[in-house]
Design a protein that fits this description.
The structure holds 2 protein chains of 2 kinds. Chain A is mainly beta. Chain A folds into 2 domains: 25-145, 3-Layer(aba) Sandwich (Rossmann fold), CATH 3.40.50.10070; 150-414, 6 Propeller (Neuraminidase), CATH 2.120.10. Helix content of chain A is 11%, strand content 44%. Chain A has 4 helices and 30 strands. In chain A, strands 1, 2, 3, 4, 5 and 6 form a 6-stranded mixed beta sheet that branches. Chain A has a 4-stranded antiparallel beta sheet with strand order 9-8-7-30, with no helix packed on it. Chain A is globular, with a radius of gyration of 23 Å. Chain B contains 6 helices and 4 strands. Chain B has 2 domains: 34-43 and 50-71, no CATH class; 76-180, OmpA-like domain (60s Ribosomal Protein L30, Chain: A), CATH 3.30.1330. The termini of chain B are far apart. Chain B is an alpha+beta fold. At the A-B interface, strand 26 and strand 30 of A face helix 5, strand 3 and helix 6 of B.
């Protein structure tokens, strides 16, 4: 009975939160088989590409993906005999052109018709996973599903290596591709500065005071923006990149500041004598932030024009991180309060317009939630036992995916 | 006879003890600062050609002394999710204030706030900072000059241990003292 109710809740489909639709989606998904018609590259690479594509096609959650690595010829008229009962067959060919670049052509076959074809090219086969993500994105669009733009975006995260040592890494959402861009010393809280993901902010502890720095990936330049005694973090960047929400602590008092990038000036937003951190831009001149003004960390909103502060969450006794998108806020709630054993932190989703609330994770330490720009997914960090993983929650599909980090611990990230 | 032997032995002892001390014995001072000053004056007055080297040696000795003083400052520990100073930590804070006002009076005191592993987000960093701020307030209340104290929070990025035990977590919830020249 419990399981039945749990699955009822789990299969809630959309943000139309007044209704619950019960559909067992797994059985009704169309089947998809893959056929590898590659003519270049060794078996190891072909298999690696195949696995990446299968994983991406699973994540878009619109097919029942068959995991057999079938080999075919690209120009065969019929699908392979073992795939003749599949609803869809995705046949693709990897080949290396005269410039040494990785090319892919593909066709999606349904009922013996080619319903979709496309070709792709990428300079280096080292970044093959971005090609796989692009393929999944395009097929998802072709099938008429809501955008999964986030699949193509890069993730930036800081990884703790040892006490006071970290590095900042740029990766794809599965962590198959990783490139350390800031090495040496202690550098934390990276945050993308622009939509193109060519620049980012981060906090450096290498100078006398914690300093916010601005790095340009294309030119390799790094500039100091502002320093503060105590701590400094870039919590959020406005959509057009012109304003930042910073947490600074001159005199050891952590508060939220609004920083104007062009004018290089800032104004203090919160004046409470306790802790005010983690501000996020919302619509209509509002921000959400974390404050302990009620004696414990909780989520509040503030209007930047009239200064009105409102409590957002009325559940739990420790809600200490948040991210906002449209009418929704995702926050981290501590669900056990033990000094002597492991603690559980779970992510919850609330609406700012209704009293809708939904728990998104079940076990472990789940923190640092970040909405994707399109609102379809939430990225977060999961630390469970000794493993640190990047997690993705697909809100409309009720599915969570975890991508473990092989070494080190993820301290914070952005996408 | 006995008295002659005795006085002879005493005289011999005196002579031999006098002969054995060929090298000049530098006074062993109780305060390290005096040692530094003695080295500096010796190098300047006797071997001018080696001033550079000995100045470096003096700087190194300075650092060693700073490290020695730093060791006299003990870390302050905190309860889970709290930043107030516990009763059992009050004596430590008082001792630290005394050291800061006396032996370490020539240095800047840097307070480093730290947390256990539960949560790497901004709130945890702020908690570490509030811990440092509470210790700073206590030091100032006991007579340490406010402008000699700086603060930083490392959140959970500077642990002293990584076991998943309550002992380790309680060791990480702390404020460390570091000295800067």
């Amino acid at each position: 009975m419990k399981i039945f109710f749990l699955s009822l809740i789990l299969f809630t489909l959309s943000f139309g939160d007044a209704t619950i639709e019960v559909i067992k989606k797994v059985d009704s998904l169309p089947s998809l088989a893959m056929e590898d018609a590659s003519v270049s590259y060794d078996d190891t690479f072909r298999l690696r590409f195949f696995k990446a594509l299968v994983a991406d096609m699973n994540v878009i959650s619109i097919f029942n993906v068959d995991r057999h690595h079938n080999i075919a010829n690209y120009n065969d008229v019929n699908v392979l005999v073992q795939n003749k009962d599949m609803n869809y067959v995705l046949r693709y060919k990897l080949f290396e052109d005269d410039d040494g670049e990785l090319n892919v052509v593909l066709k999606l076959i349904s009922n013996e018709d080619e319903v979709f074809t496309k070709s792709y090219k990428i300079k280096s086969k080292k970044v093959y996973m971005f090609l796989s993500h692009a393929i999944a994105y395009d097929i998802n669009s072709f099938m008429g599903m809501p955008s999964v733009e986030w699949m193509k975006r890069k993730v930036i995260f800081s990884r703790l290596l040892s006490p006071k040592k970290s590095e900042i890494v740029i990766a794809d959402y599965t962590l198959s591709y990783q490139s350390a861009v800031i090495k040496g010393g202690l550098n934390l809280f990276p945050k993308w500065a622009d939509k193109q993901q060519s620049k980012f902010y981060y906090t450096s502890f290498d100078s006398k005071k914690p300093t916010l720095k601005f790095a340009d990936i294309r030119s390799g330049s790094v500039k100091s923006v502002i320093s503060s005694d105590g701590m400094i973090v870039c919590s959020d960047v406005s959509d057009n990149g012109s304003k930042l929400l910073l947490t600074m602590a001159p005199k050891g008092q952590p508060d939220i500041y609004l920083y104007n990038v062009g004018a290089r000036s800032y104004s203090r937003i919160t004046k409470f004598s306790g802790i005010d951190v983690n501000a996020q831009f919302m619509d209509n001149n509002n921000i959400v932030f974390v404050s302990n003004r009620l004696g414990y960390p909780n989520i509040f909103s503030k209007n930047l024009v009239n200064g009105a502060v409102e409590q957002m969450v009325y559940y739990g006794r420790s809600n200490s991180a948040c991210s906002a998108r449209g009418n929704y806020v995702v926050y981290k709630a501590r669900e056990s309060s033990s000094e002597f054993s492991r603690n559980t932190f779970n992510l919850h989703l609330i609406s700012t317009k209704t009293d809708f609330i939904r728990r998104l994770t079940a076990t472990g330490v789940n923190e640092f939630p970040r909405f994707s720009k399109d609102g379809d997914a939430i990225l977060f960090i999961k630390n469970y036992k000794a493993q640190s993983s990047l997690g993705i929650i697909r809100l409309n599909h009720n599915k969570n995916y975890l991508f473990p980090l092989k070494s080190g611990r993820i301290q914070s990230m952005d996408w | 006879m006995k008295s002659i032997l005795l006085s002879g032995a005493v005289a011999a002892l005196l002579v031999f003890s006098g002969c054995s001390s060929k090298e000049p014995v530098v006074d062993q001072p109780t305060k390290p600062a005096q040692e530094v000053k003695a080295v500096e004056t010796e190098s300047v007055s006797t071997q001018t050609a080696m001033v550079g080297e000995n100045a470096q040696a003096a700087a190194d000795t300075n650092e060693l002394d700073m490290a020695a003083v730093e060791r006299k400052l003990s870390s302050v520990y905190f309860d889970f999710d709290k930043f107030n100073i516990r009763n059992d930590m009050l004596d430590k804070v008082s001792n630290d204030a005394t050291v800061a006002k006396t032996v370490a009076s020539g240095y800047t005191v840097k307070l480093e706030g730290n947390c256990d592993e539960w949560g790497s987000d901004e709130y945890n960093f702020a908690l570490g900072l509030k811990r440092a701020a509470t210790v700073k307030k206590a030091l100032v209340a006991q007579g340490v000059q406010e402008d000699r104290i700086t603060m930083v929070s490392y959140g959970e990025s500077n642990p002293v241990c990584s076991d998943k035990t309550k002992e380790c977590w309680s060791q990480n919830r702390r404020v460390d003292f570091k000295l800067l020249p």
